[in-house]
Amino acid sequence: MEQYIINGGCELHGSVPISGAKNAALGIFPAVFLCQDTCRIENLPQISDVHNMLDILSSMGAHIRYLNKNAVEINTAHAQNLPTPYEMVRRLRASYYLIGALLGRFGKAEVALPGGCDFGFRPIDQHIKGFEALGATVQITEGGIVQAEAKEGLVGDSVYLDVVSVGATMNIMLAAVLAKGQTVIENAAREPHIVDLANFLNTMGADITGAGTDVIKIRGVERLRGCTYSIIPDQIEAGTYLALATATGEEVTVTGVIPKHLESITAKLSEMGAEVIEEDDSVTVRRSKNERLHRINVKTQPYPGFPTDAQPPLMAACLRAKGTTVFTENIFTNRYRHAEEFRRLGAAVSIEGRVAYVTGVERLTGAPLTASDLRGGAAMLVAGLCAEGATELLDDGYIDRGYDRFDACLSALGADVRCAAPR
Predict the structure, then answer these.
(1) Which residue numbers are catalytic?
(2) Does the structure show a pLDDT above 60 at 193?
(3) At what angle do helices 192-203 and 166-176 cross, to 10 degrees?
């Protein structure tokens, strides 16, 4: 258990480079299984989720070689179709991408249902619908193991997703790239990391069109080859720093980003009263600490709507805004645990089902907090920096799952944050 000590009241200023996207990396790593060659992945985020996924690949026979802290070579020529270790996959929701990748290469997969942050029930029925459309039989054992097999090989078909699902879209893409014929995914998710996965697969020799729209077409190819590829910057990491700058005042720049990916977030920050300045590969947020923020309405939606992962840090930024901000969480059923912790700081937050009402207060006061998920933990750090006095945050490794040296980066911007327990 890590303990962060946060002293609020500091004015933040400076710039912070943004890491590669966690959600893109966790889809790209299983995709390497689809070729029997070496892939070089660059702009690698240094986070525990990435290390856990690489450990899973290594346990299945992939050869992993770090070239530097942000680049790795993965050779899967001798990878084996082994059952994934439960103790590894239970920590990582994205481990279910191994099902599509293993089905695509070996025609068979056996993967434990994933873990990760608990936001309520997250079914994989749309994943299964896609695999079965391609000719696989799928069952889930009483022990929570997903067993999928395509004895006659996978064959392309049309798949209409009943709900927009990022995970199902990516998993079906992984299964379809080596299938016979053409697969069409309708009502597909459009997130930037889906486009990044498609670009990576195409760089390996796949034939995918339409990624970034709601109709994706995958024409099966006979084989894929190794490649070198650089992961896109992390939209949510960047959004967290921008929300922090809006909450605390002064000026912070995130560098190495794609501003278009941040538009739904920066639009809300502008509504709150922050000045947003976009350059080719950077975004700056500037705000006077003496000016109180405005209330807003936020509804989480699939991309290009407001991302659910950015909801917790934005809520932290709204705790002292004028009036009542209304959040409607449309993606997950249980994503307001951070709101309960905000109340310890003196925040006025009430929850009614999927709706959270945040009435801004004049001041927050430091208090002991406990993180229960990745983005909620980061949001508590943001809230602690807005509070008067010291906040102690207990975190069971959640923040390190998605942020590279978050405390050190905050300190470089002028925050008074330290991690009291060694990593």
Answers:
(1) 117
(2) yes
(3) 10
